[in-house]
Every structure is written in structure tokens, then in C-alpha cells.
Write a structure and sequence with these properties.
The complex is a heterodimer. Chain A is 0% helix and 50% strand. In chain A, the strands form 2 sheets. In chain A, strands 1-3-8-7-6 form a 5-stranded antiparallel beta sheet, with no helix packed on it. In chain A, a hairpin with a 5-residue loop joins β7 and β8. Helices cover 0% and strands 50% of the residues of chain B. In chain B, strands 2, 4, 5, 6, 9, 10 and 11 form a 7-stranded mixed beta sheet that branches. Chain B has a 4-stranded antiparallel beta sheet with strand order 1-3-8-7, with no helix packed on it. Chain B is globular and about 40 Å long. Classes of the chains: A mainly beta, B mainly beta. The interface between A and B is medium-sized, with 20 and 25 residues.
Chain lengths: 110, 113
């Protein structure tokens, strides 16, 4: 996969606050995948974005793919303690191995 | 449960010993992947199989590591002469050919003392 930079590395919020994590690339991406890993758990596939400007929603989660296909974001509205974990964005340059970065670790204070 | 399973879930071994881990993918998935994850890092790709063929190995996979998928179903990952630096979570994932999403197992946590 192509190299993407994800920020922030850590985010601590109060329950009920919103949260956003961003992924940026210097090159055009063919697609972006998002995974979530709970503490002590394994990565779980959330979504894949392919089209320029694509926006997809899953309940309180909103995923966006930039118009230039060089950036992506994940926004969580009104965080809950169940949202705790590390969120990874991954550029799927090929449809096999995943190249994970460090992701964004979200902690939520109840 | 029809997800990816891994065995054992935890393994403690002494330096220099050999260990073997098993992964059972989702039954209809012909692709199987191994990753290694250390604390605070994302998983790192080690190798992957399409059916029984091992198609790519990472440079992270030294000669002490070997993986097999003899019948295109379950896979084993063996580490010979373990070192303390091998301590990590070893994750297995599977997918169907052409699908981007991978389904991960719970992992095997290896501790080398």
C-alpha cells in the first residue's frame, strides 16, 4: 500500500464530545480502508472508500474520501466509551497485504 | 463461531525453543495472511497465501520463521530458536480473492523469556 500519515496519534475526549482523525497522502490513493482495534483486541474492518468525494455513514461514524483522493477522515459524533480503541487508515495499493501505521488511539473519559 | 480462529491464544517459551502457531481461516476464504504486532504499533505484514501457495514474504520474516498452508485451509507459523525480540502478538487474517477487507483472528500472544 501507499504511505499515508495519520493524525493525531492520540486523542482523549470526554464522553459526548466529537472526535475526528485524519489521513493524508502526497500521492493519489486508489482506495482507503479503515479498521478499528479495541484495547487487547484484533483489528476489525470498518469500511472502504473508493470514489473521489465519497462520504459514508455508519451510525455515529462518518467517513470521507477527499476530492483529490489524497486524504480521508473519520468523524465520530457524540463519542461513547465503546468507541475507545485505535483507528487505522490504510491505503490499499494492492488487494492483499495491509500496511498499518500507528493509527490514532482514542480514549474516552466517561 | 465461523470467524478466524488461532491457537494457542498465549504462549510463553524460553529463548532458543521452537514454537508453532495455528490459524484456521473463514472456510470460504482462499487468502490467508500473517501479521505481527508489538505494543503501541500497528500490525506488520509477514506473509500471505493464496490457497496453498505462499505468494509473498516480508523481509521481517527471517530464516527462523516458516509458514505453511499445506491443503489451502489452515496455516501454521513456526519460529525456530526463539529470541526475546520475537515477543509479540501474531495475528492471522483471511479474505476472499479480490476482496479488500480482511478478517482477523484473536491472535497468539508470544512471550519469550
Amino acid at each position: 500500500g501507499q504511505q499515508v500519515m495519520q493524525i493525531p496519534q492520540y486523542q482523549h475526549v470526554q464522553e459526548g464530545e466529537d472526535f475526528t482523525t485524519y489521513c493524508n497522502s502526497s500521492t493519489t490513493l486508489s482506495n482507503i480502508q479503515w479498521y478499528k482495534q479495541r484495547p487487547g483486541g484484533h483489528p476489525v474492518f470498518l469500511i472502504q472508500l473508493v470514489k473521489s468525494g465519497e462520504v459514508k455513514k455508519q451510525k455515529r461514524l462518518t467517513f470521507q474520501f477527499g476530492e483529490a483522493k489524497k486524504n480521508s477522515s473519520l468523524h465520530i459524533t457524540a463519542t461513547q466509551t465503546t468507541d475507545v480503541g485505535t483507528y487505522f487508515c490504510i491505503s490499499g495499493g494492492s488487494n492483499y497485504k495491509l500496511t498499518f501505521g500507528k493509527g490514532t488511539l482514542l480514549t474516552v473519559n466517561p | 463461531d465461523t470467524g478466524v480462529s488461532q491457537d494457542p491464544r498465549h504462549k510463553i517459551t524460553k529463548r532458543g525453543q521452537n514454537v508453532t502457531f495455528r490459524c484456521d481461516p473463514i472456510s470460504e476464504h482462499n487468502r490467508l495472511y500473517w501479521y505481527r504486532q508489538t505494543l503501541g504499533q500497528g500490525p506488520e505484514f509477514l506473509t500471505y497465501f493464496q490457497n496453498e501457495a505462499q505468494l509473498e514474504k516480508s523481509r521481517l520474516l527471517s530464516d527462523r520463521f516458516s509458514a505453511e498452508r499445506p491443503k489451502g485451509s489452515f496455516s501454521t507459523l513456526e519460529i525456530q530458536h526463539t529470541e526475546q525480540g520475537d515477543s509479540a502478538m501474531y495475528l492471522c487474517a483471511s479474505s476472499t480473492e479480490g476482496a479488500y477487507e480482511q478478517y482477523f483472528g484473536p491472535g497468539t500472544r508470544l512471550t519469550v523469556t
